[in-house]
Specification:
- This protein is an alpha/beta fold.
- The protein folds into two domains: 2-28 and 155-218, Rossmann fold; 32-141, 3-Layer(aba) Sandwich (Rossmann fold), CATH 3.40.50.10090.
- 35% of the residues lie in helices and 25% in strands.
- The chain has helices at residues 12-15, 37-44, 55-63, 75-81, 94-104, 121-128, 160-169, 183-189, 205-218; strands at residues 3-6, 23-26, 30-34, 49-52, 69-73, 87-91, 110-115, 133-143, 154-157, 177-180, 197-198.
- It has a six-stranded mixed β-sheet with strand order 3-8-7-4-5-6, with helices on both faces. A five-stranded parallel β-sheet has the order 2-1-9-10-11.
- Helix 5 runs parallel beside helix 6 and helix 7 (160-169) runs parallel beside helix 8 (183-189).
- The longest helix has 14 residues, at 205-218.
- 32% of the residues are buried.
- One of its GO terms (molecular function) is uroporphyrinogen-III synthase activity.
- This is Uroporphyrinogen-III synthase.
- InterPro entries: 4pyrrol_syn_uPrphyn_synt_sf (IPR036108), 4pyrrol_synth_uPrphyn_synth (IPR003754), UROS/Hem4 (IPR039793).
């Protein structure tokens, strides 16, 4: 029986129909916790244009009824935020979002709602283009190390922070398959392993699950 590790806790409905004959272990390797709302709201009271690169940050904005223009990484964040606010730009990856901002919105001032641990892509690129940006962490990210029944035939990763947390404690065998939800996660993995890394065409969880199915069962 194939053994697959998903390094994020997912509902079984997401993967059971695609991988019915595999042993799938799905567990979190990071935890998140919001900072106090009052502290964050005081920092953004004069902001009108918000960059959001995670669903966690988008959920915070909705919970606190933040009003303004939004620029998002990911369809889930866009769909959530667009119910109450204009979403002026959306992209699958941070690199593509900052390119849109550079081309169309370079005269604006932005507030980046993020984690205390985040990639440099958005702030470094915008600042290098002289685009005004304020970073406001809305949640903290911490590493977890759940016990594993290693080794697995395949390992799937969903974020750079999840990658870093995993490799603090564990290693991946040279003959195991590795899957990454998107390019940023793939780039992070390349710092820890020389195994081939598979990514779906679109950074969607369901697309990643089907890629795992196609790849693993093609080997049998």
């Amino acid at each position: 029986m194939l053994k697959i590790l998903l390094t994020k806790k997912l509902s079984p409905e997401v993967y059971q129909s695609a991988l019915p004959k595999a042993q799938v272990d799905s567990m979190d390797f990071i935890s998140t916790e919001y900072f106090p709302d009052r502290e964050i709201l005081a920092k953004i009271e004069n902001e009108t244009d918000f960059i959001v690169s995670s669903l966690k940050a988008a959920q915070w904005a909705i919970k606190n009824q933040i009003k303004g223009n939004f620029y998002c990484v990911g369809e889930k964040s866009r769909n959530l935020l667009s119910k109450n606010n204009p979403v002026l730009a959306t992209a699958g990856y941070a690199e593509d979002l900052v390119q849109i901002i550079q081309e169309k919105y370079n005269q604006k001032r932005f507030c980046f709602l993020c984690s205390d641990i985040r990639l440099d892509t958005i702030p470094d690129t915008l600042k290098s283009s002289k685009i005004l940006l304020t970073e406001v962490p809305v949640y903290r990210t911490r590493s977890l190390a759940p016990p594993l029944e290693a080794p697995y035939n395949a390992y799937a990763f969903f974020s750079p922070s999840g990658v870093k947390s995993f490799f603090k404690t564990y290693k991946i065998p040279n003959n195991s398959f590795i899957f990454a939800l998107g390019d940023s996660t793939k780039n992070s993995l390349e710092s820890f392993t020389e195994n081939r890394i598979f990514t779906p065409e679109n950074p969607k969880t369901q697309d990643l699950i089907y890629l795992i199915k196609r790849t693993l069962y093609a080997q049998k």
